[in-house]
Design brief:
Blueprint lengths: L24 H21 L9 E5 L6 E4 L15 E4 L4 E3 L6 H13 L5 E5 L2 H7 L19 E4 L9 H11 L4 E4 L3 E6 L2 H24 L7 H11 L2 H18 L6
Parallel strand pairs: 6-7
Antiparallel strand pairs: 1-2, 1-5, 2-3, 3-4, 5-8, 7-8
Helix pairs in contact: 1-5, 1-7, 2-4, 3-5, 5-7
């Protein structure tokens, strides 16, 4: 196939249209925590919560063997930056007050430990994600959006109940490898990213892709996008910058609607 005639962002050189990036460690940490809290609020807004299940983590920029995570039992819809927990890879809560979800630690610590490129990881028991996960198969390239995951996600088909043993977290991390997402069979979705923005966006759009495929298969026999086209589309909409950029307007809406999340 021919290369695109233009870029998705045609005036990419115009930095006035881009969001300024934090520069020092304190600013980077605060930015990550702000976007973690906003991501949790978004998950709540979109109905991805299920009781106390679900967690999003982001690696600390300075103490890279630590990550920030939401406290267990606090609604996604109400989490504030000040309530986030800083947890070491050995399971010690070194900052913050609240309960540490054992499954969150088991899964996320092993993923962060296994791949230094992973800045953030997201998992929840979202409705369409867990419905699709029960089918024991990968997403098909049915839509432009689902192509972001084409040959870039895995099926982890070894469901053994609530994941509380470190060895199970290690198996998930090994199966995930360098890909951006995993379908945990009979469980739900898991996404990772080089930024908190990308990890959150991949989860949101993967959940919607699961919904679209379930609806399409219920209505008939979907037509798949060709292999070469799916790969080219993934390169455009499935790269780290695309994940980060797609998240930005959602973040802007959350800050405007719920500014108290930054407290």
């Amino acid at each position: 196939m021919k290369a695109p005639a233009n870029s998705i962002v045609m005036n990419i050189g115009d930095t006035n249209g881009m969001t300024p990036q934090p520069e020092n460690m304190d600013e980077i940490r605060q930015d990550r925590k702000n976007k973690l809290a906003a991501s949790l609020r978004l998950f709540g807004k979109f109905g991805f919560d299920e009781g106390v299940a679900g967690h999003i983590t982001v690696r600390d920029p300075e103490r890279t063997d630590h990550f920030w995570v939401n406290p267990m039992g606090r609604s996604f819809k109400q989490v504030k930056v000040s309530e986030l927990l800083l947890v070491s890879h050995t399971g010690e809560v070194v900052e913050g007050k609240g309960l540490l979800n054992g499954a969150a630690f088991t899964i996320h610590s092993r993923i962060h430990m296994a791949n230094p490129k992973v800045t953030a990881a997201a998992h929840s028991h979202s409705l369409y994600g867990k419905a699709f996960a029960s089918l024991g198969k990968l997403l098909d390239p049915l839509t432009q959006d689902s192509c972001a995951f084409y040959e870039d996600h895995v099926l982890f088909d070894d469901f053994s109940g609530v994941i509380l043993d470190n060895s199970e977290g290690e198996l998930i991390a090994a199966a995930l490898g360098d890909r951006k997402a995993a379908i945990l069979q009979n469980h739900g979705l898991l996404t990772v990213g080089e930024s908190i923005e990308a990890a959150a966006w991949w989860f949101i759009t993967m959940e919607r892709s699961c919904q679209a495929q379930l609806m399409a298969e219920a209505a008939g026999t979907p037509k798949l996008i060709r292999h070469d086209v799916a790969l080219l589309t993934r390169e455009i909409i499935g790269n780290p910058f695309a994940g980060q950029f797609n998240f930005q307007p959602l973040y802007d809406v959350m800050i405007a609607e719920q500014p108290e999340l930054l407290e």
